[in-house]
């Protein structure tokens, strides 16, 4: 981008200072972007692990449910699932990472998990 500047010493000095500040700001923004990408990649790895764990547990639960469904009547199944033994609570907070506000979720389970013989 061309600037309309008088070619004298004062303008030259001022422009050099602006260039130094701009280069430093660009480097800081680049470092911030690199750190955010590193944290994002770590989060992706964590999510992949959790997803695999949930998928395995879901497959196991579906197998148990199909066994229970084949041995129990429809009314008995409805009675088993009528009252939840666990009450989930999701809390949402904001944490600040590199001056960016990022949502943070926390799930807490209250109550006892009812263990059925087939489920």
Notable traits:
119 residues, 2 strands, alpha+beta, single chain
How do the helices and strands line up, and which of them pair or pack?
Elements lengths: L8 H63 L2 H7 L6 E11 L2 E11 L9
Antiparallel strand pairs: 1-2
Q: Structural class given helices, strands, pairing? A: alpha+beta
In quaternary terms, these chains amount to single chain
Distance between the termini: 69 Å
Report the β-strand fraction as a percent range: 15-25%
Overall pLDDT score: 88
Shape: rod-shaped
Largest sheet: 2 strands, antiparallel
Low-confidence stretches: none
Number of helices: 2
The sequence of SSEs as H and E is HHEE
Task: Provide an overview of this structure.
By secondary structure, the protein is α+β, with helices and mostly antiparallel strands. It has a domain at 9-82. Helix content is 59%, strand content 18%. It is built from two helices and two strands; from the N terminus they run H-H-E-E. It has a two-stranded antiparallel ribbon. The longest helix has 63 residues, at 9-71. It starts with 8 loop residues before the first helix and ends in a 9-residue tail after the last strand.
Short description:
The protein is of the alpha+beta class. The chain has two helices and two strands.
């Amino acid at each position: 981008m061309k600037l309309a500047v008088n070619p004298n010493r004062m303008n030259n000095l001022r422009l050099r200072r602006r260039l130094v500040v701009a280069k430093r700001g660009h480097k800081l923004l680049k470092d911030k972007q690199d750190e955010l990408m590193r944290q994002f990649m770590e989060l992706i790895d964590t999510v992949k692990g959790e997803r695999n764990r949930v998928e395995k547990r879901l497959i196991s639960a579906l197998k148990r449910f199909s066994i229970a469904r084949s041995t129990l009547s429809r009314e008995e199944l409805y009675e088993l699932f009528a009252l939840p033994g666990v009450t989930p609570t999701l809390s949402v907070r904001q944490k600040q990472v590199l001056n960016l506000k990022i949502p943070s979720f926390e799930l807490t389970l209250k109550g006892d998990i009812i263990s059925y013989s087939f489920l």
